[in-house]
Design brief:
heterodimer; A: six-stranded mixed sheet; B: 15 helices
Chain lengths: 537, 335
């Protein structure tokens, strides 16, 4: 009896292993993968995103899932050319900025119509931006400097700012918030909510694709806007499906089988970094790494405790094992940071040092600061993120060797933030990712290092203050000359790397995976998917 | 019977009142600021304040609870912090998907599990019985997510016969909404293409979700049948010369079904509440995924709405189970 059971059990085990083994065969052997040359559904583009957009109203949402959808239907006045680092025309043909960066005048391209037939005029642009600012949600924070919007003539619109703000042009060049929405649609569907309820699942913009159908949690179907103002000459796709697929393994399988064209979450790569090589070797799949917009920092409290002393902060800088983190936690898919502004963004300073671990130097600096054997404890808060926790643990181990005890506390993000915003209770160390919202160094400098951004006013959560840095950052906001601004940012960066208010751990690379039949794609770390330029061949 | 229904509905009221207090208290004890989460990483203090006012988070906790209960009495579960829509609207959208999946899973369980259990009992200690028991054991020990991945590997990647996930093919519009369950709605609409597509999409998730319950039902049916098959009245029925089929299906199975009914009721409840993993593996947009996202983003109105929905379901399923005893077992009618 017992042997019978045993045999049956073994048989079952063998069968299940065989089945599992079948599934794990290489795609090339499974015979199912279409050959690379044969394009599946050439007129339809399938983009995978990891989560449903919350709301399609550009004045309300700015998460990457939402902008990945609405940037197919809505357009901005200007756009950012990531390759050249320049602002280029879109709805506006030309513009001028007053030297003190308080007045921005845009000349609109004539003859553009919204998908409901309404004409794009200066009045329509004013309506959209007034709505965005009055609603005061999500992306509105970037437009807080706007005092008023004036209609100069039917095709000329002027933004008057409360105070000089040179990054404003770059704010307008990113997809979140500042898009043109049909004023007719807003008026018709306003139920005392500025049509927000209706615009949550409808889009009436000037863009190349119109919303055809949204099945929440599953797919968003977009079709060509037949009257699109840039026309349909050349190669384009006719339909786009933005499919919500949460599981990374499922996204990979769909891409492998050619049932999906692009993994669309540019901000957070959907490929586990540990599987990068495997995915990039899949036949017909193209994986590209770009300089991204996100950096990883360990913030240090500059206000209290031993870390108030710059020598201790510098010692911490030399204690961190940057290469080890990049190699073993990010599998090589990150670059050691070089100062506060990430690679690829204008004002990045290639002459700044790239810090490396040097424990002898760390010891020496600690001794100079009066802590030859360490002997103090640092509180380190970490939000629930596996990589952050690993980094914190590795750092704690290194610091233990220098006699510094690290007390790691993992907290939900909102709880951690509340703690960090309380100047008297803020921990000595915290780790966070930072990405700029607009392609201007200001998006990295002002919120993190200006003393006006302390606590709840920004993200200077280590309470760093340096009058000179404040002055450079403030001055750079107030002039429109980019060369002069670059100079100011570089001066500020030189001071920052000397005073290390944070540890710049690494700059994450953006990983974009797509089928090799997708053509016309270009990456913009501060933009979205260039739907209009993409075709399949 | 009306007494039973009345008592149960009263109980439902109590359960819901209790649940509303508990979920409200728990969600407000968590030291986190949901307004900050909604407003976003880079939001200014004034933006956070706007969100706080919009959702009534600036009121004292007591006032928030009164506001919440008033809303509940009007059928208003509040507004989700994530989707920014009324929670009730979200639940109406996502619940039918979970219900469809759970009903398909339970149908599969009963259609396969009961006959397997009966066969196992009839062929007791023979090779068929052993095989069934091994299958049942394996079925209840496979973790659902693993089984799901395995099925995807075989049927999507290997054989190319079934889709990887979702409820319909890409670019396909759902049937006109009647129940929100695509299979039923496409049948009602008489659209063969959609029926086919919904069935294909339902197959793997339903099998994955139902596997463990199927194994339980098989084992329960087997043991109940074995118990009944040894009774005197079965011996009598056999002695009378009744055909084996009549004895097994008419005399024995009917009496063996009580524990199976109870178990099925419990299983439906746990399938509804426990479909998160399967929904996640197959990207099945049901309340499981909705709840998961709500928990991850501290979307308290959605979490509270979900909890009330699941509690209501449990009470109703138990009521249906009790009522089904009433029809199957004449003794309960006399009592």
């Amino acid at each position: 009896m017992r042997s019978k059971w045993f045999v049956l059990g073994i048989a079952l085990l063998v069968v299940s292993l065989l089945v599992a083994g079948c599934g794990a065969r290489k795609p090339a052997e499974s015979g199912g993968t279409p050959p690379a040359a044969q394009v599946k559904n050439p007129d339809r583009l399938v983009v995978l995103i990891g989560d449903d957009p919350g709301s399609l109203d550009p004045a309300e949402s700015m998460d990457p899932f939402t902008t990945a959808v609405y940037s197919a239907s809505y357009e901005t006045l200007v756009r950012y050319d990531a390759e050249k680092g320049e602002v280029k025309p879109l709805l506006a043909d030309s513009w001028s900025v007053s030297p003190d960066a308080t007045e921005y005048v845009f000349k609109l391209h004539p003859g553009i119509k919204f998908t409901d037939g309404t004409e794009l005029t200066a009045e329509a642009v004013k309506t959209s931006f007034d709505r965005l600012i009055q609603m005061n949600k999500g992306p509105a924070y970037m437009y807080a400097s706007v005092k008023k919007i004036e209609v100069v003539d039917p095709l000329t619109v002027k933004f008057v700012l409360k105070s000089p703000f040179a990054p404003f042009l770059y704010v307008l060049a990113q997809p979140a918030g500042g898009v043109a929405i049909s004023p007719k649609a807003i008026a018709e569907h306003d139920q005392g909510d500025r049509a927000s309820g209706w615009l949550r699942d409808h889009m009436v913009g000037t863009g190349p694709y119109v919303l055809d159908n949204w099945v929440r949690g599953q797919q968003i179907i977009l079709k060509q806007n037949p009257n699109y103002w840039r026309g349909w000459e050349g190669k384009h796709v006719k339909e786009i499906a933005i499919q919500v697929v949460k599981e990374q393994s499922s996204q990979r399988l769909l891409l492998e089988q050619g049932d999906a064209d692009i993994l669309g979450d540019m901000a957070a790569p959907r490929i586990p970094l540990s599987e990068f090589d495997k995915v990039s070797q899949l036949p017909g799949v193209k994986v590209t790494e770009y300089s991204g917009s996100s950096e990883l920092i360990i913030g240090i409290n500059c206000l209290r405790g031993p870390t108030k002393d710059v020598r201790v902060r510098k010692a911490l800088t030399y204690a961190l094992d940057y290469d080890g983190i990049i190699k073993s936690i990010y599998f090589g898919h990150a670059r050691p940071a070089q100062g506060p502004i990430p690679y690829g963004l204008w004002s990045h300073d290639a002459s700044l040092p790239v810090f490396k671990q040097d424990l002898e130097k760390a010891k020496q600096l600690l001794a100079e600061a009066g802590y030859p054997k360490g002997g103090f404890t640092l509180k380190f808060t970490v939000e629930p993120n596996e990589n952050y926790l690993k980094i914190a643990q590795a750092f704690a181990t290194t610091l233990a060797g220098l006699g510094i005890k690290v007390d790691i506390q993992q907290l939900p993000w909102a709880t951690e933030l509340a703690l960090l915003q309380d100047k008297d209770r803020a921990p000595e160390l915290y780790i966070t990712g930072w990405y700029g919202d607009y392609p201007d160094p200001d998006s990295y400098m002002y919120p993190l290092y200006h003393s006006a951004s302390w606590g709840a006013n920004g993200f200077n959560l280590g309470y760093y203050k340096n009058a000179e840095v404040d002055r450079y950052i403030g001055e750079a906001q107030g002039i429109s000359d980019q060369a002069r601004r670059t100079e100011l940012y570089q001066k500020a960066q030189k001071i920052l790397v000397e005073e290390v208010p944070v540890l710049w751990v690494l700059n994450q690379t953006a990983i974009v995976a797509m089928r090799d039949w997708v053509k016309g794609f270009h990456y913009n770390p501060f933009g979205s998917i260039p739907y209009y330029d993409i075709y399949k061949e | 019977m009306s007494g039973l229904v009345g008592r149960r509905l009263f109980l439902l009221g109590l359960v819901l009142a209790g649940m509303s207090v508990i979920t409200f208290a728990v969600s407000h004890l968590v030291p986190a600021d949901p307004a900050r989460l909604v407003a976003g990483v880079h939001a200014t203090a004034s933006q956070v304040e706007t969100v706080r006012r919009e959702y009534g988070l600036d009121l004292p906790v007591g006032a928030q609870y009164v506001r919440y209960v008033r809303g509940l009495l009007r059928g208003d579960l509040g507004k989700s912090l994530v989707t920014r829509r009324p929670v009730l609207q979200d639940l109406c959208e996502f619940f039918p998907a979970t219900l469809e999946l759970s009903l398909a899973a339970i149908a599969l369980c009963l259609l396969v599990g009961v006959p397997l259990g009966v066969m196992s009992a009839v062929y007791r200690e023979r090779w068929l019985d052993h095989l069934m028991r091994v299958v049942a054991l394996a079925g209840s020990s496979f973790p659902a997510f693993w089984l799901g991945l395995l099925l995807q590997m075989v049927f999507y990647r290997g054989l190319h016969v079934l889709p990887l996930g979702g409820r319909l093919d890409l670019f396909q519009s759902p049937p006109p909404r009647v129940t929100g369950m695509y299979l039923l709605d496409s049948l009602l609409a008489g659209d063969a293409g959609l029926v086919h597509s919904s069935l294909r999409h339902l197959a793997l998730p339903a099998l994955t979700l139902g596997m463990a319950a199927m194994a339980m039902i098989t084992r329960m049916t087997r043991s109940a049948m074995l118990d009944v098959l040894n009774r005197d009245y079965i011996r009598t029925a056999r002695a009378k010369g009744l055909p084996a089929r009549t004895v097994i299906f008419k005399h024995a199975l009917k009496n063996a079904l009580f524990p199976v009914i109870t178990l099925t009721g419990l299983e439906i409840g746990s399938l509804l509440g426990g479909s998160v993993l399967v929904e996640s593996v197959f990207d099945w947009p049901g309340v499981g995924l909705y709840a998961l996202k709500a928990v991850q983003s501290m979307d308290f109105p959605a979490i509270m709405g979900m909890t009330l929905l699941v509690s209501t379901c449990y009470v109703f399923i138990n009521l249906v189970v009790d009522l089904s005893y009433y029809f199957v077992d004449p003794r309960t009618r006399r009592a």
